Amino acid sequence: MNSPSDVELSRADTERAVEELLRAAGLTAEHAELVRRSLMFAETRGTNSHGLARLRPYLERIARGGVNTRPTLTESVSGAVHVIDADGSAGAVAGMTAVRAAAQAADSHGIGIACARNTNHVGALAFYSAALSEAGLVSIVFANADPIMVPPGGSEAVLGSNPIAIGVPGGGGASQTPLLDMATTAAAHGKIVELSRERESIPPGWAVDERGAPTTDAGRALAGALLPAAGPKGFGLAFMIDLLSAGLAGGSLGGGIVPVADRFDEPQGCCLVVIAIDPAHAAGLDSFTRADRALGDTVRHSRPVDGRAPMVPGEPEAERARRATGAEALTVTDALHQDLLDLLRGWSISPPALVQKVDQDV
Q1: What pLDDT, on the 0 to 100 scale, is given for residue 95?
Q2: Residues 165, 202: one domain?
Q3: I need a surface site. Which of 84, 176, 217, 260 has the fewest CB within 10 A?
């Protein structure tokens, strides 16, 4: 459902404008296309916190030198494990390099692990898991980030939102292929940035203010810190993701990562781990597909509360993406539209065509 402040833009024009902005800031055509794909993947799935809302800080870091626009990525290989120094590249560049390395190792060994260090914000991790799903592989992807999460019983941020994605091969028949992508905070930091831009409040239990007191004010939350998802469970998962990301890649722990919206002239130093598993080397793809279908059917055929069938992880986002596939228009908030127009004016790039402004819920 659209809100009264939504606008519809030409999707093709928007993609063209985003890519032109990234190239104008300094990325190569190949890297600009990859970052644009990452942003649009998130935007069309409804993961707006990692979609076009990220464009402004990305451009700022690229233009001011925090992103190496001509990186030399280097790899060391030992068996099924690849370690990648991303040389300060754009996050999507390091992420897809790790995807290719892990897939290559899985083809030879049945499992592949690619650990990347010295990169920048990698965007929605589902982007990488989806690529491995299309290749018929199971994937586990996680990354560390700058501290924005308080520990249980603490009032100072010590860990990042440290997301994790888990994907499985396609081919589940009528069942939508599950794809989990989650932050280990109660909400994604980008979601709070988005709500702050829209001047909306946040639900209780998401964040604390700068004094460590609970808050529903998005602005105060950004000045404070986020709470872990599921209390000690989310904190424990975030802790291990930070440790494994930095420890396996040989890079920075979260405390050494440059904040995503600050010190734009420096590379952030994020770490990413991609694990790819070929189910043919385990019980087989057919066995995995049967389990996928059976578990998905169990969830969907369980008793609903409001008449709508329950969904498996990633299914709501996949439904949005399917509706967006082939659509000529892209729906964005008016605030995001105005921010995009401001960026385009600053870089002297023609704006995307306005299809229509939505004046009421549709």
Answers
A1: 98
A2: no
A3: 217
What contacts 127, CB < 8 A, 6 or more positions away?
37, 38, 41, 42, 92, 95
Q: Based on the fold, state whether residues 210 and 234 are members of the same structural domain.
A: no
Rounded Cα distance between 238 and 233, Å, is 9
Using the structure block, give the residue that is written with the tokens 């995995």. 288
Element (H, E) at 131: helix 126-134
| 3 state DSSP class of 233 | helix
Low-confidence ranges of the chain (pLDDT < 70): 1-4, 171-175, 356-362
pLDDT of residue 2: 57
Domain coverage including residue 211? 190-227
Task: Looking at the structure, tell me whether residues 57 and 80 fall in a common domain.
Answer: no
Beta carbons within 8 Å of 44's beta carbon, 6+ residues apart: 51, 320, 321, 324, 325, 330
* 3 closest CA partner among 354, 344, 331: 331
